[in-house]
Amino acid sequence: MAVFRDGKALVARRARAPLLGLYSLPGGVVEIGETLHEAALRELDEEVGVTAEIVAFNDHVESIVRDDQGVRAHYVIASFVARWTGGEARTSEEADSVLWIDPLAAGDLPTTPGLEAILARAASLIKACP
Description:
By secondary structure, the protein is an alpha+beta fold. The chain has helices at residues 36-48, 115-128, and strands spanning 2-5, 8-14, 23-24, 51-67, 70-86, 95-101.
């Protein structure tokens, strides 16, 4: 989820595979019986200790990992846009670094594929939401 606070977006460095060591948006797995909104908010709190209000759906990212034996993993990531409402970003077993960054200038941070485009779109959506 792209969470914004004072014009900055929250990113977290993945402490586990897949994509270990890359910065991404906080998130995780949807549990059975949970809506996407509920899962996004729960994972945000569990992973980085932040609460937020979802204001828009951003986009989805689909990642298919293949090798010579076929499809090894298939992830569909639903990205929401949210405003920070509480908590101070902290590390956890899932995130070993957290940063509030300019959403249009990730700089030389090692990021998950497509993060820059997701952040740019999220930045335009947060500005358009009252």
